[in-house]
Prior knowledge:
The structure holds 2 protein chains of 2 kinds. By secondary structure, chain A is an alpha+beta fold.
Amino acid sequence: MSYFEDQDAGKRFRGRLSTASVLMLIAFFVLVLRFFxxxxxxxxxxxxxxxxxxxxxxxxxxxxxxxxxxxxxLMATNTSAYTLEIVPGLAGNIDETIEGLSKVVTIEGKxxxxxxxxxxxxxxxxSIPLRSRLSEVEVxxxxxxxxxxxxxxVRARLFRSYPLGETGSHALGYMGRINTKDLxxxxxxxxxxxxxxxxxxxxxxxxxxxxxxxxxxxGFESVExxxxxxxxxxxxxxxxxxxxxxxxxxxxxxxxxAEQAFGKRxxxxxxxxxxxxxxxxxxSMPTYDPNLFVDGIRSDDWDVLNTDINKPLLNRAIYGTYxxxxxxxxxxxxxALTVGKRTPQLAISDPGYFNFGNHTFRDDKKGGHGMVNxxxxxxxSCDTYYYTLANEWGIDGLSxxxxxxxxxxxTGIDIDGExxxxxxxxxxxERRFKRPEQQKWYAGETVSIGIGQxxxxxxxxxxxxxxxxxxxxxxxxxxxxxxxxxxxxxxQLRTVPLEKTHDLALKPDHLEVxxxxxxxxxxxxxxxxxxxxxxxxxxxxxGTAQVFSLKGGTYSHGGTKEFLRDHxxxxxxxxxxxPKIALAVIVENAGFGAQSAAPITRQVFDYYxxxxxxxxxxxxxxxxxxxxxxxxxxxxxxxxxxHDALSGLNAPESQTGPFVRMPAANDALPxxxxx
Amino acid sequence: xxxxVNWRGVxxxxxxxxxxxxxxxxxxxxxVGLLTVFSATxxxxxxxxxxxxxxxxxxxxxxVVARIPPQRLMQLAWPMYLFGLVLLVLVMLFGIKVNGAxxxxxxxxxxxxxxxxxxxxxxxxxxxxxxxxxxxRWFSKYIGALLILLVPSALIAKQxxxxxxxxxxxxxxxxxxxxxxxxxxxxxxSAAAVAVAPLAWNFLHDYQQKRxxxxxxxxxxxxxxxxxxxxxxxxxGSGGVIGKGxxxxxxxxxxxxxxxxxxxxxxxxxxxxGLIGNLILVVLYGFLIERGLRIALRASTTFNRLLAGAITxxxxxxxxxxxxxxxxxxxxxxxxxxxxxxxxxxxxTLCTGLGILMSIETHRTNR
Lengths: 675, 367
């Protein structure tokens, strides 16, 4: 078959071939148009897209500000540690990954449990710590096996650390991982961009309140990344600016001594410098180690803290409210002088009881104290004197005067979680109760108020603040924990300005009477044993607060179940003529104020005024229970024996003592659900 | 010292069947391929040396094939086609599944992909068919051709391997087209194809449907099947006119382009060489096709010219489908960029095609 035989076919073939050529040319032309469109017309857009792919702005977390005590002792710092972290979105099967990792580095059951907990709360592409504080050897071992574990990394991170451990933890607070609630707070502060790389935040205490002072300003690194998000090289860097340091009013050594003075006992102590409102010690016992919270608390540690019957996480000093008991009496006396209800000399005869209506209010001393004037009423803590005083004064005036001393209102201390307490008044009662018969104020209730019982319920901070106002001749300053803030970058020191909150314009001779009586308490009165041999003159007053009304029952110190025993209180200031320190202390369920609360105060004063370091916890003052009033049934409404009212009293606005709920502090913490 | 080797004498039998223009163009394309494979893989698993050996082997095969006279190729056409068909059936029955597709036959020591044989066997058999039945009545002629065309194409499409099926089908179809299938029939078939398209849609695999959908809107599945297209168009677009420079494309170097040394190698090339590089590449393919078509035009027998034309248009299909999919105007199918994508199999097929073209060209005079 020759070419010439197929002339027609050949012609047709050539035709088809040229058609095909044209079609192919058109197709290539379309391709070229497409290339032109992408590379020239849309070039800018695609260039941006490529840059977006390539560049990641990685935030560089600033160093958190440090916390120093008033003498420059370091209380909170940052330490770097290696953590083993997993990004769940990149790691594939998490369980297998952890199983494999546990062959390379030590991973305990509690590490796994904490990880699972954090995993439930985390976003997919968040890096979640599995193990923290890896040793150099472990880091090296992991590095050798790294290729087996996609999405797993060892990172050097800065962790908050508290060199003094448990000391002052309720003032310092603790850190935790940022949760949804924290994010809202960050947004409100307009700090969202600044917190992009931050994953821990102050949860309580100063760490929380001064979060935005101490956080600092995030830096940024422009990093070239590959498709897997791994950084290839750093292109540019804006360094972070460290957070500001806090200089506290707390004296760390004093704080430590005060905490140790409590021994194993529960309670709270607030010590204030009366001349400026600086808080020298803020103790809530038992305390806890905030270091445990730093990288997400392990659930078993949390369980121990959270289920401990002693409630170590509760800040008793500012959130626990207690009846002040007899520590209320100096303030009652001062009020009586100020409003003219009593003179110092006026003496009453104390038969050992006070009849009101058909109810008898008993004094602690059978047969009474005999003739009692203002001085002896304080020194010997005579109840009858104050029953009659309160009854004559009336609730309105009494409540108004106590309000001026700060009772029943928040002091405005610079940490969160402060309770208001209860300053009883007819208006309060009307707000507090629903039923009309409960809302009514009965004159008999005023009588119990006079000796610091009844509805009275205050924080130790309020009681210490009132004591400081008394010590400073009626002038008070807002209690605060931060003295100054130092800006690391500029070297500037910002002093927190003093805020005068109280000026009661009291008469010096009235103050003199109360001061003398309180000096008498420590010399010849209820706490004389605790202050025997002191080289300075201290003014004080003991108190006992009832936990439960044991109506008609017999009180027996040792026989009552521990948590039903009375709380021991003490207020004091020293040196009496020019006070440098004023404090309020409560020892829960310890019985009598003089027995346990006064010796703690003695150790605190001895150290603060004389530098004497105690050898151990404050001993209970030896000997017989001092004659502190512990009459009962004072919560009871003498006019109306209403048990509903009573049960309401046992749980006023915030509950009392060890029955206080935990503050709703931290929803990021693992809370094991009870089956 | 008379150990002079007569190189000319040794190479003569090889060189006389080589078509110099084709070899030069292919050489340039392979050079581009080696450089781009190097740029795409140097930071990870280095592929250039092994691609160099692939090319050497494929070129050797090309020289061998070029020496086979077309008459001999004609004799091989049917045995090769039937052999390929039997293997395809065996694949269907005993093939090994990799990534959900049954494309390979295990021979114990190695695996082969029979569909690749069909890329050559199909135009061979089809050209043979029209060579022998050129004067038959058109109806029976085309029914036979349709069978030859559809049976292997369908078997390959079912594996599934849409890319290869398209290449095999188009290779056969080009022969039918060049043989002079009536425009009416072509028009009618196209209309029918459009009509059954919605029906055929249901026969497509999920992932194939997805690829077509993502072509229409890549952003509908940015992390799934749309990811390839999005990243490759970013690469081409960000390359601009002059490109980012050899080994400096961020999309390619930082692994944003998937399969960057195989099917998507064009994105790496385009990013680094820009529009100018793309134009040069298109022009090189254009020269390759032009040379092939010229060979077809000059070919002496029906078999030769149909075969040469179909193989040349096959090269076009490879290049157009690959660049079209990488630049986002065609759906993603597994078609490599000829002479540039990494991989020995494609090179062997392409160089066999080149060898056939050379054989047709160099055996023209001594028939």
